[in-house]
Structures are given as C-alpha cells and as structure tokens.
Amino acid sequence: MAVTDAGKTSPIEAAPLPAPPAEAPLKRFLSDFADSRLALGAALLLAAIMIVAFLAPVIAPQDPYDLATVSVLDARLPPGTENFAGYTHWLGTDGAGRDLLSAILYGLRISISVGLASGVIALFVGMAVGLVAAYVGGRTEGLIMRVVDLQLSFPAVLVALILLAILGKGIDKIVIALVVAQWAYYARTVRASALVERRREYVEAAQSLGLSHARIIFRHILPNCLAPLIVVGTVQTAHAIALEATLSFLGVGLPQTEPSLGLLIANGFEYMISGKYWISVFPGLALLLTIVSINMVGDQLRDVLNPRLQK
Amino acid sequence: MSVFILRRLMQSALVMVAMAVIVFFGIHLIGDPVWMFVSPDMDQQDIEEVTRALGLDRPIWEQFGYFVLSALQGDLGTSFIFGEPALGLIIERMPATLELAFTALLMAVAFGIPLGLYAGLYPDSAVSKAIMAGSILGFSLPTFWVGIMLIMVFAVILGWLPSTGRGDTVDLFGVPVSFLTLDGLKHLLLPAFNLALLKISLVIRLTRAGTREAIHQDYIKFARAKGLSTRRIIGVHLLKNILIPVVTVLGLEFGSLIAFSVVTETVFAWPGMGKLLIEAIQQLDRPIIVAYLIMIVFLFVVINLIVDILYSILDPRVRLGDRGA
Amino acid sequence: MNDAPTLQVTDLKTHFFTKAGVAKAVDGVTLSVNRGEVLGLVGESGSGKTVTGFSILGLVDQPGRIVSGSIRLNGEELVGKPEADLRKIRGRKVAMIFQDPMMTLNPVLRVDTQMIEAIRAHGDVSEEAARERSREALVRVGIPSPDERLQSYPHQFSGGMRQRVAIAIALLNEPDLIVADEPTTALDVTIQAQILYEVQKLCAETGLAMIWITHDLAVVGGLADRLAVMYAGRVVEEGPVDQVLDAPLHPYTRGLIGSVPSHNRRGARLSQIPGMTPSLLHLPEGCSFAARCPRADDACRVMPPLEGFGPSRAARCHHPFTAENDGQEIDLTFNE
Per the CATH hierarchy, to which homologous superfamily does domain C1-81+214-336 belong? Predict the structure, then answer.
C-alpha cells in the first residue's frame, strides 16, 4: 500500500516528462527554435535581408549600374547628402557616384546568390560522395576519405584562391572555386552520420527485403543524415559568403561588372585613408549582419536538431 | 621516437609527391601548361620556342619527370615580372610572412588562454558572457573587413599606428625582422592582431571547453583535497591538461595563419609571400603561383610533422615507444 | 584530549540550491570518529554520504554549501573557516581518497610531481626531502621499486596500484583523519582485500581515524569498528559494526542487510527494498523511509529523533527492531 504510493509521489526524477509526441514535428521544431529570442531575431533579420536583397531591382532607389542615372559629379558624397537631382543619398555615394544604399542592395543580391548557389551545389556533391563512401565502404571509402582529409588540411581560402588563379574571374568561376573548396566538409558530415545509420537494424532489414541500393540510400539512410547536413549547410553558406567577399576584395573573385559586397568594400578601401569611411563601412556592415545572422541561426539549428541535447 | 619520426618523414614525403602529381596534372587538365610559363605579350613564335625549351612537346610522363627533377633542384621556373627564379622570390618574402604568422600565434595564446580560462572558471559572470560573445563575433567577421576597421580606427581616426608596410627592420642571423625595432613593432601590431583574431576566438573556445570539462574531473578535486593552492591547481593541474588540445590545434592552425596572411598582407601592404601571390595572380605571373603552391604544401607537411612530435612530447599517454605497464 | 573524538560532526546540513529547488543532500548528520577507529558510512547512492565527506574537507562546490551545523576536528571548528585556512587543513590534517583511481591522479603529471607538491603545499620542505618522504609513502602502501615508480605517469600503473598511490598521497602528511569515498569499489576483489588489510593495519599502528564511505556492507563489515547508516541525508542508525549487522534497529538497515547475499540464510529469498530513494528535492514530511517501510504507520508522519539504544547505539525510528518487539518473526522480504 505504502509502497505503491511511494512509486507515485517520490520519483527520483521530479523533472516533467518530455512533451507528448502528439505535437506536429514542424510545430515543435519551430517552438524549440523560438526558445532563443536572439536566434529568432537573427532568423527574422536574415529573412528581411534575403527579401530586400532579392527585391533589390524593385526597391532600390537607383539602378547603380544604369549609367544614365549615375553621375560622377555625385561621387563620394557623405551619407544624407542631397544630390543635384534633389535625391537624398542616405548612405552616401561611392567613388563612381553611385547611390551606396542601392549598390549595397544589389551587392547583397550577388553575394547571397553566390553563397547559396555554391552552398547548394557543394552540398549535393559532398552528399553524393559521402553517401557513396559510407555505403560502399572498403577501399573506395578509404580512398575518398583520404582525399577529403587531405583537402580539409588546407584552408578553404587557399584552395579557392589557387583555383581562381588558374580559372580567372567570373561568377561561374567563383562558384566552382567555392564548391571545390567546400564539398569536403559536406562529404565528411554525411559520411559520419550515414555510417551510424548504416549499422542500424532498419537498414539491414531493408537490405534483407531486397530493396535496391538507391532506395535504401535515398529513402532510409539519407533522411537520417539531414539534420547535421542542414546545420553544416547553414554554417558553410555563411562561410561561402565571407569567402566570396574575401576573394573579391583580393581582386581575384568577381569582375567589376558584378560588384558583390566584397568588391564594394575593396573599392571604398582606397578612400578610407582620406576619411571617407562610409564607402567601405556600410557594405561591410551589410556583410557582417548577413554572416552573423546566418551563423546564429545555424547555432540554434544545431541545438534544436541535435537529438542528444533534446530533453 | 626516431622510428616514429622516420615513419612520419616518409609519410610526409608521400604527401609531397602526391601534391606534386596533383599540381602538375591539374595544370595539364585545366589548359596548355605552356600558358603557365609564358607571359601574355609573347607572340606565337615565342610561345613555340618556350614550348620546346621547356620540353612541353614531349610525352607527359617525360615532362613530369623533368618537372620533378628541376623542382628537386630548387628550380620552379622564373618570374615573368621580376625575371628572377620564382622560388628565390618566395623564400625572400617568407621571413616577413613567418614573422607575422608567429606573432599572430603568440597573440592567440597570450589573449586566448587567459580569456578562455576566465570564461571557463566563471561561466556565469557578465565578463565571461562578453568574452564568449566576442569570440563568436571573432569567428564571424571576415578577416579583411576587420583589417579595414583596424586601419580606420587606429590609423585614420586615432592615428596611433601606421597602416602599411613593415617599418624598420634589423637583420637577425641574416634575416630581416621587424619586431626588434620600435617602428617595426608598431607596424607589426595591427596586421598581427588582425591575423590573430580568428585564432584568439578559437583558443578562447578550446580553453573554455577544456576548463569546463577539466574542472569537474576527479583529479582536480583530488588536487584540492591535497590542499594545493588555487594558483597551482589552475596553473599546473588544469592548464597542463588544457594545453594539449590547444597546442595541437594551434599547431595545425599555423598553416591556416600562413594562408590567411594572404588577406592580411594585402590589407596592410605587408611585404610577405601572400602579397606576392596576390600580385602574381593579378599579373598572371604563373611561375610564382606554382612556386608558392609547392612551398605552402611543403610548409604544411613540415608543420604537421612538428605538431605530431610536439603532441607526443606534451601528452605522456601517447608518448612514443613506451606503452606503459 | 585523547578521549575527545578526532572528528565530531553535529547536525550538519549541506544543501544544494539548484534551479529545480533546494536539494537537502545532507540534512542534520551527526557522527563522530575516534583515534585509530574506522567508521563505516553506509548508504545507497544519493543518501548524502559522499557530500558528508566533501563537507568535512570543505570541498562542497557550487551550488551547494554548508547551511548549518558543526564539524570539529580535534576540537577545532571547521565550519565557517576561511578558504585559506581550510586549504592548510586539507591534505595535512584531513585527507581524502576517491572512488575511481583511474580519475584521481592527473594523467599528464608524473607521480613524483603529484606527491612532492602535496608535501610542499604544507611546509617548507626541500625537493629532496619531499622526494624521500614520497618514496617512503610508496613503500608503506606496498608499491615495489618505488624509485622507478616515482618517475612514472599514472597511465603506467594498474588500477589497484593507482589506488595505492592515492592512499600514499593521502598518508604523506600523516593526517589525523582520512575520508575514503568508496576507494575499493572500482577494484578487483583480491586487490580490494589487500588494500583493506593494509588500511586496517595503518589505522591500528598510527592512530589514524578513518571514515570509509561505501554502499557495500560486506566490505565494511570486515573493516570498520563502527557503522553509521545514512538514508536521504540523515544518519538513521549508528553503532558498533557487529551489533548493527547482527541486530539492526532500523528497518532500512535491516533491508540493506537483507539484500546482501552473504548475510542471508541459505535458501532464503534475497530481498530487495521496494521503491526508490526519495528525491532530495521533495523529501516527504516525517520519516523519509516511511514510504518504503513495512512498519510505517501514522506515527511516522513526524520525523523521529536519533534516539539512543544502550550506551553505544542509536537509531532514528519510531518502530525499531528492539529485543521486546522483535519476538515475532519479521518478514524480511518486504512482501506487501
């Protein structure tokens, strides 16, 4: 009598039981994510940045690359100055007289596009290689992972730099360079989690049912590798954006006709010594906000998606 | 111990050979290698001459043998711009880069370990949270942007430190160094800090994580039960355990410091091999690019070897040759 | 002076102030240890025996702290002493040995470093003299070729050897009291026996007092002079080891003994105490064992005091198994 009571009233762990699984996974994921206000703020900021970047041609006050509207007479105007046409440049103008706010919006569009494109392609390349390595195993796996390790021992910036030195400038070239510099991170991630999944019983069960390799890989193993892949994908996309900016700043990335944020910063750098700080600083801040917000979202994703941390 | 080093040396040689193969055939894969050795203003006849002179009309295996042979003799081609051997140019610029990288490494340790230790010992204090927020920022900020901001604040606005060049140098064992003159030190400070920032953040994280883990270990409690002073517990028992991963990671990161010095050297006009590389890329001075690549691979291999040996010295558990009872 | 106990703990309360609430890990512990005596401190995990040990050394970490009570070592009050003074006592007057010898020695420091520093933390001793004393201590705990062993790293020792080194370190400054927290649990039975034998000899020879914390009654039965049984942060029974083991007063002690195979009658069912140790965050009113106790009734809603039974025994129970009420056979198996 007293004994059964004890079982109810004095459990060792007084902590509440985990939430009932009835909740929809997506809803639960969203509420977990929103647990951190900072991360939620970062996610909202990131969404806002993406929207204004992709709407740049619509919302930018000026088309900074339309020679008809840009006048060199307006060059290097400080923030808040009104130009001859009576239009106010809230963030000032750059060395060629372009409205800096507009240039930043267009630059963001290029930077984010390059980052996303290279991130997605590298993800698929790395995923394919990682899955093959984990699934096939043996010598093939050993060889693939040797290459991955060798490449990872060299900094991505160096790999991309050398590639661009050979390939030359251009959006397509920088995407190729970033993919080559980053695929190995994805391959390593996918292989690690695929290896774990591969040893699970359900994979063995699927194999004994005679399911095709492709079906086992894509329907059974891959979905279970998605969580780490998403986390790495976010962080690596931020990396790609920073890397592209760095390469463009160094003058080996994008040509002047396609000015990303990195190029804007580089162009403003020469005016910095003379105190015209805004030409470099504002594009830099835009870059900074983008990278930091992606990283914060990635951090929170890691916490939310990590099953070991789930209480 | 010597057996281990010998084995590692052989592995390193293997990596070097592999990289040489990749570089050589990579160049072939991408385009006619003669373009790596001619300047853009040569005409067709000149190009054919160079092709013959370089033996590029021979079978590819023969060419590879020639490439390896001349590379082993230290001949990696002649710079178009300077008209000097590319390898010599790289080596001439190397001390400046190494000085920058070593100073950055020193800064990473000098700032990173105390800050990380503090953040690990008092994780809930406001200062610790500020340190950690700073380290996250340090990870996120692109190096070149931080460099520009450093120049803006310390050189343009405050006017405390110079923004370009190496300043006065003096020869130390025949190698020019900046850190022995006041002017050189002033020039060194900003670029070194710029280069170090990422690594400072890394060391803070590593040290903090190590401290958080070690502080709950029984051996720390046992050390306290022995009545040791806090200073000795932190300075010897804790620190020696934390230093192992920190030194290992930092050693491996030294290569990335040299790689990132490309960025910092460009921002601060620091006359090192990174700046030389960027100029070479912009001026299509291909022999320098190849020489830089070979040199950097060599440096990486050497660094990895040194780190492995250092690691085995630091951690008695992996000490080579004695397996324990 | 000689009659006074080496250690006298009175009504000690050590609580942990966590986010989930206040965990009363030690909630009114009273015990004493005399010179040359081994006190066995017995209880399940979570009963507060380890925290009691740490409290004695002043090693309770945040968010825990000693709330009230008194710890007197040779008459000197330790509770409330500044950390600097406590540090001088730790390792010199009170030493501690931990459960897992694999974890207690610093893996990256040589054994001699770890021994010499323990001596030099408490006195101006030359490196040479400290090394010599370390050597002697290793000999005393039965470690062969001590000179060579001093130069070794912990990973070069076996588990039993490491625990001997830990004991040697505890002995270095000839303390008055050693708190040993399950020091043999992680070891093989044969090594356990050797170490127990040596510890017993040490106490008898040197007048060292010892608190041997364990959950293993079989170990402590052969080693200790007296037993203190802890449950949910309190001592529920105390007395000479033979008397407590042969005729336990408290139902909990009885349950513990019943669950040890060697103390059971052959063929009898090995009993288990039903239920679980209560959460220290939400201790019930009254006797904490009542919920699991076959003898519990309404009286147990009030916390029983630690009451004396004869000159040397005490128990915290409203319905102890005393001679007068123990006539009928009590069902040891705790059937419902």
Answer: P-loop containing nucleotide triphosphate hydrolases (3.40.50.300)
* Interface residue B231 vs chain C (CB under 8 A): no
**B273-to-A217, A243, A298, B278, B287 alpha-carbon distances in Å:** 46, 20, 35, 9, 14
Q: Is A58 on the interface with C (CB under 8 A)?
A: no
- Exposed / middle / buried, residue C237 (Cβ in 10 Å: 0-12, 13-18, 19+): buried
**pTM of the complete model:** 0.79
Note down the domain range covering B270: 86-125+197-324
- Asked if residue B10 belongs to a domain, the reply is no
Nearest to A6 among C281, C291, C336 (CB): C291
Domain count within chain B: 1
Contact B255 A287 (CB under 8 A): no
Q: Does B149 reach chain A within 8 Å, measured CB to CB?
A: yes
The per-residue pLDDT for range B61-79, each reduced to its tens digit, is 777 777 777 777 777 777 7
| Contacts of B183-188 spanning 24+ positions with Cβ under 8 A | B186/B161, B186/B162, B187/B161, B187/B162, B188/B99, B188/B100, B188/B103
Option in C104, C109, C166 nearest B240 (CB):
C109
Q: ipTM of the assembly?
A: 0.83
Least CB–CB distance from C108: residue in B227, B232, B240 = B240
The total number of structural domains that make up chain A: 1
> pLDDT for A30-69, tens place per residue?
777 777 788 888 889 999 988 888 887 877 777 777 666 6
**From the CA of C145, how many Å to the nearest CA of chain A?**
46
Distance between alpha carbon C287 and the CA centroid of its chain, in Å?
Answer: 22
On whether residue A174 sits in a domain, the answer given is yes
Taking the C-alpha atoms of residue A155 and residue B253, their distance in angstroms, rounded to an integer, is 9
Residue of chain A nearest B135, judged by CA positions: A292
